[in-house]
Design brief:
Strand order of the largest sheet: 1-8-3-5-6
Radius of gyration: 16 Å
Helix content: 25-40%
Shape: elongated
Number of strands: 8
Strand content: 35-45%
Structural class: alpha+beta
């Protein structure tokens, strides 16, 4: 089963919690045991799983990514001027896979799933592929 989800981002760099949306799709699928693949088809965004309890974690992650991959660098050649967003996307990766057990996502106590925007604001989409078994 393949599902498409749309998402709006509001800043250049942000981590949007999509856990609730993923849970709803899994529940509506009726799959009790299997996996869900969360996939981002964009070269300047990614998918991550990380802490959900302290919002400062998202801040710190984005801050550090900016330090490692500054928006401007004298050696960048990419004509669109968004090399940093491509590097951040490579770092987070385009997908995450989560186990579905007894109809629920098998996430750790402090884990949530994030759509990571690195070249916003934009209208984006991501895909959920639910596999039974």
């Amino acid at each position: 089963m393949l599902y498409t989800k749309n998402i709006s981002t509001s800043t250049r760099d942000e981590m949007k919690d999509i856990t609730r949306d993923v849970k709803q799709v899994v529940q509506s699928s009726g799959v009790q045991n299997g996996t869900v693949l969360i996939y981002c088809p964009h070269t300047t965004a990614g998918i991550a799983i990380n802490e959900n309890a302290d919002p400062d974690v998202k801040h710190d992650v984005l801050l550090r990514l900016d330090e490692v991959y500054p928006w401007e660098h004298p050696e960048y050649r990419h004509a669109e001027g968004n090399t940093a967003s491509h590097l951040k996307s490579i770092t987070t990766g385009p997908s995450q896979t989560v186990i579905i057990h007894e109809g629920r996502l098998l996430l750790g106590r402090w884990q949530d799933i994030y759509f990571c925007e690195f070249d916003g604001p934009r209208e984006r989409e991501y895909f959920l592929k639910i596999m039974e078994g």
